[in-house]
Specification:
The structure is a single chain. Helices cover about 45% and strands about 10% of the residues. The protein is built from five helices and four strands, in the order ββαβαβααα. The strands form two sheets. Strands 1-2 form a two-stranded antiparallel ribbon. The chain has a two-stranded parallel ribbon with strand order 3-4. InterPro entries: Transposase_11. This is Transposase IS4-like domain-containing protein. Pfam families: DDE_Tnp_1 (PF01609).
């Protein structure tokens, strides 16, 4: 899952249980829809990506930089306390929100398309709740 700075899911993929997380980094970045903001051309990519140690590969750092995105990825073998947790908790919170939905907490469906449909509905509900909260402020 890749989220914006507020915890709104932007893109999410489904893989097998034993796949490395880093294999889904580029498909997730490419799946981010264009974000319309101020006048002009819509931004199609974020400015920076914050990731944990599972994504620490020089090959993927180069690929992310080639897309015009600054990678902030913790290095393996270094002490904890790099400061990335300040940004990474947003994604962990989004996963916790997905686990509020009982059908997603434990996968009972055999078919991928059914599970992806429930996941899409859950992400839509999370986005709607964020928009509802922000419109009240």
């Amino acid at each position: 899952m890749i989220t914006d700075g507020g915890g709104v899911p932007l893109a999410i993929t489904l893989t097998g249980g034993n796949r490395n997380d880093v294999t889904q980094l580029m498909p997730l970045i490419e799946a981010i829809p264009a974000v319309r903001g101020k006048r002009g051309r819509p931004r199609s990519r974020p400015e920076a990506v914050y990731a944990d140690r599972a994504y620490d590969h020089d090959k993927y750092r180069r690929l992310v930089r080639a897309k015009g995105i600054q990678p902030f990825i913790a290095r393996r073998g270094t002490e904890h306390g790099s400061g990335l947790g300040v940004h990474r908790w947003v994604v962990e919170h989004a996963f916790a929100l997905l686990h509020w939905f009982r059908r997603l907490r434990i996968r009972w469906e055999i078919r991928d398309d059914i599970h992806e449909a429930f996941r899409s509905i859950a992400c839509s509900i999370i986005c709607w709740r964020r928009l509802k909260i922000n419109s009240l402020c």
